[in-house]
Amino acid sequence: MRVNFPWATHKFEERGWRARLHIIPRAYCGFMVDVLTPEQRRENMSRIRSANTKPEMVVRRMLHARGYRYRLHVRDLPGSPDLVFPRRRKVVFVNGCFWHVHSCRFGQVVPATNSAFWEKKRLATVSRDERKTAELSALGWDVMTVWECEIRDLDMVERRLVSFLGQ
Ligand SMILES: [Zn+2]
Question: How far is the CA of 122 from the centre of ligand 1 (A)?
Answer without folding.
Answer: 14
